[in-house]
Amino acid sequence: MEPLTLGDKRIIAHQIGRDARGVIAIPRRCAYGYPQVATVYPLLDREPFPTMYWLTCPYLHREIAALESEGMIARIEERIASDPALAEQVMRAHRSYIGQRLKLLSPDDLAYLEERRMLPALTQRGIGGIANFARIKCLHLHAAHALVGDNPIGEIVLNSLATDACPRSDVLCHSFR
Fold first, then answer.
1. Whole-number Å distance between alpha carbons of 163 and 160
2. Is 104 inside a domain boundary?
3. Fewer beta carbons within 10 Å, N or C terminal of the chain?
4. Considering the entire predicted model, what is its pTM?
């Protein structure tokens, strides 16, 4: 994981259309060196924030949004329901994500969350804060996780795309510098 620079913060703000809150690192850059996935600290404004990996790439965001609008979430949920091996892989991805998220928290933050009974939001909820691991909240979250780790849903999504980066003739983030 690369540390976050001031330039990264500026580029991410352009990529997502607002200042990014809680970003602490860049675990994945695109082929052109721009942030593609950002790591977000799991506690924002003293509230649990379950989304640890945030897809910042505008190209991937657009392409994955098109897959969502074509009904890909429902199709993958049907596959999870009918394929026990895939369901087990998805469960492992959520559990791994939860473990990674908890490792980011300081002992003081863990104590704070425990004292206020907010820790279950980060220990019992998976990718994107979802409670039912057979459901999918957002394909972007799973793709971001697959780009930095092991996520079968994200791999299905990314394998549905022609590429995981802008075409060289139209690098969207060049205009953000």
1. 9
2. yes
3. C
4. 0.94
